[in-house]
Design brief:
This protein is an alpha/beta fold. Helices cover 41% and strands 22% of the residues. The longest helix has 25 residues, at 195-219.
Length: 236
Amino acid sequence: MRRLPDPAGAVLAICGLAFEARLVAGPGVRTLAGGGRAGLAGDIEREVDGGIAAIVSFGLAGALDAALRPGTLIVADAVVATDERYLTDPDWSRLLSARLPRAVAGSIAGVDRIVGDRLGKRALFEQTGAVAVDMESHVAARIATAHGLPFVALRAISDPLLRTLPPAAMIGMREDGRVAVAAVLRSIVRRPQQLPSLLRIAVETRRALGALGDGSRLLGSRLGYADLDQFLLDMV
């Protein structure tokens, strides 16, 4: 059963990386970081038990659509994973699209492991029809749906379809969402030829994070959720 909007309630933002969480953190927004880890679902459930009004998946994503470039914002209309499909909240998603007119609407594929090569991305696109992929949205969508909580996903493309992630990027995230600096450095020492690719990814990631920061500011309080009632009245 879908819960009615509670504009005064806290929104829980699910992020893959700690610096994504810092972008969205603020009054009325709680954050959890650490995509792809086994304990993420349990942490979300505990936050739900503690009382939240809505859930948003917020952060970076890889492109599955060849037309998407780094820094493109995606407002998800659905999240797909294996044989699961979860629709996002239509009213809140409409507000996001209205305030972010350059954002692209489309579905997001959720995976439990990084899809870092172009062949894997193409295969996932053919299987799901999703325009982007991340490792948190399906977990957040599943729990939000189970509890009847409003759910949306706002993601920014960090790596285009044809970009294959180098080894250091594949191991660069710790379970708490922080960068695994020591592991990245060891990987670079073993394979220094990946350094140019890593620098290019750093530039693209910075562009994506900038888009996320700008987007969150345009959306306003609680990523627009606090204004949802007024937005719906204005639409009448």
